[in-house]
Amino acid sequence: MRVFKKYGASSALTILLLVVWETGARLLDMKFILPTPTDVVLKIWELRVPLFLEHLPATFLIILIGLSLSILFGVGLAVWMSINKTVEKTFYPLIISSQTIPIIALAPIFVLWFGYTIWSKVVVTVLITFFPITVNTYDGLRATTKEYKDLLRTMGATKKDIFFKLQVPGSASYFFSGLKVAVTLSVIGAAIGEWIGAQAGLGYFSRRMMTQFDGAGVFAPIIILSAVGIFLFVIVSSLEKKTLKWRKTE
């Protein structure tokens, strides 16, 4: 009953949109442009072997490497900026400025630099996911109130104690908020990189189907990419709930 109350409205809306899509696509009868959801599902089943055994693992590997690097360097830079004002003034404007550059315009350059290897796609993924992780973690580290810090100092706490016992727990929820944004963006980053230049992957497969005017073939990997994004978001949300059991949520 709780699950129905929580997801009933969104499930009903999803079903309604699928019905509208199915009906509209059948009325237009232009499958090479707008296939029906049924056609897409049948295409996924028809191409299940190359999609799930060849292209999905290639895309998933890009996502995992890109996210891992973003977490490693993003959290590290956020911590560095929080403890050093010079570093903050140096890097923070650059981090903000990096988001004004259209990543899709840089993707071909990375292909020229790294070729059709996995690293051209990983760099695109890192550039997209680095920002939310870094900024959210940095904001979380700065969100600690001065009163709490003063209280710990009066109790004899060192800077190390304040960082690990106050700032790190306080910034955990900020970090997970940034990570939930990053995991969904990582799917987009991997797909963009594969679309520009790759030899395998769901983005590459979608582009290949487009050259064959196969509408259902174009949509099939897109649906799988969406499912991957939802799957990763659910994993991060579950990890957040288990890690932050002390936090009271509605």
From TrEMBL:
<comment type="similarity">
    <text>Belongs to the binding-protein-dependent transport system permease family.</text>
</comment>
<feature type="transmembrane region" description="Helical">
    <location>
        <begin position="122"/>
        <end position="141"/>
    </location>
</feature>
<keyword id="KW-0813">Transport</keyword>
<keyword id="KW-1133">Transmembrane helix</keyword>
<feature type="domain" description="ABC transmembrane type-1">
    <location>
        <begin position="56"/>
        <end position="236"/>
    </location>
</feature>
<feature type="transmembrane region" description="Helical">
    <location>
        <begin position="218"/>
        <end position="239"/>
    </location>
</feature>
<keyword id="KW-0812">Transmembrane</keyword>
<keyword id="KW-0472">Membrane</keyword>
<feature type="transmembrane region" description="Helical">
    <location>
        <begin position="58"/>
        <end position="79"/>
    </location>
</feature>
<protein>
    <submittedName>
        <fullName>ABC transporter permease</fullName>
    </submittedName>
</protein>
<dbReference type="InterPro" id="IPR000515">
    <property type="entry name" value="MetI-like"/>
</dbReference>
<dbReference type="InterPro" id="IPR035906">
    <property type="entry name" value="MetI-like_sf"/>
</dbReference>
<feature type="transmembrane region" description="Helical">
    <location>
        <begin position="174"/>
        <end position="198"/>
    </location>
</feature>
<keyword id="KW-1003">Cell membrane</keyword>
<dbReference type="Pfam" id="PF00528">
    <property type="entry name" value="BPD_transp_1"/>
</dbReference>
<feature type="transmembrane region" description="Helical">
    <location>
        <begin position="91"/>
        <end position="116"/>
    </location>
</feature>
